[in-house]
């Protein structure tokens, strides 16, 4: 019996996925939609209650390709060590000008660094750059928008306008399941 308990414990430890900490907290609104978001090929754009916009890509290899193309396209020189640090980040939300400094920080400094969000202004829309680079690498990527229920509608509108400007008219909204709908 003891062997079986250790075998089960080992199995759960080895198969568990570690959840990476997000740079902001998100209290997502509830809905009755039951369609599940896929685990792969998804760009997740998150909007915090403070109005910060964050970009997430789940696949580590894809993040490496994205930072390689982004740094070449927008003339942002990064060392191999900085690119490796970026590859390990699932979610980020800062202007591109702050990214090299952030990637050079120690892990303890990164934890105390406050990411304010990716600019989505009409004059400096870096969100469109990130999405364009990601879609140029993998055209099958789907866009999903996750917003805090207390986020300002204008911030949602800026993100949606950015997607519309790029002719990305199909995207998902991420919500929590309120109650399972009853079939009548």
Key attributes of the depicted protein:
184 residues; alpha/beta; 5-stranded mixed beta sheet; two-stranded parallel sheet; 7 helices; 7 strands; 40% helix; 15% strand
Structural write-up:
The structure is a single chain. This protein has helices at 2-15, 60-73, 80-87, 99-104, 107-112, 126-137, 153-165; strands at 30-31, 42-47, 53-57, 91-92, 142-147, 171-174, 176-177. The strands form 2 sheets. A 5-stranded mixed sheet has the order 4-3-2-5-6. Helix 2 (60-73) packs across helix 3 and helix 2 crosses helix 6 (126-137). The protein has one domain (22-177). With 184 residues, it is of the alpha/beta class. Strand 2 and strand 3 (53-57) form a beta hairpin. The radius of gyration is 18 Å and the shape is globular.
What class, by secondary structure content? alpha/beta
Oligomeric state of the chains present here: single chain
Tally of individual helices: 7
Low-confidence stretches: none
Percentage beta strand: 5-15%
Q: What's the main sheet like?
A: 5 strands, mixed
- The proportion of residues forming helix, as a percent range, comes to 25-40%
Shape: globular
- Structural domain count: 1
Radius of gyration equals 18 Å
Element pattern in H and E = HEEEHHEHHHEHEE
How do the strands of the widest beta sheet line up side by side? 4-3-2-5-6
Instruction: Determine the N-to-C terminus distance.
Output: 47 Å
How many β-strand stretches? 7
Mean pLDDT score: 84
In short:
The chain has 184 residues and is an alpha/beta fold. The chain is 40% helix and 15% strand.
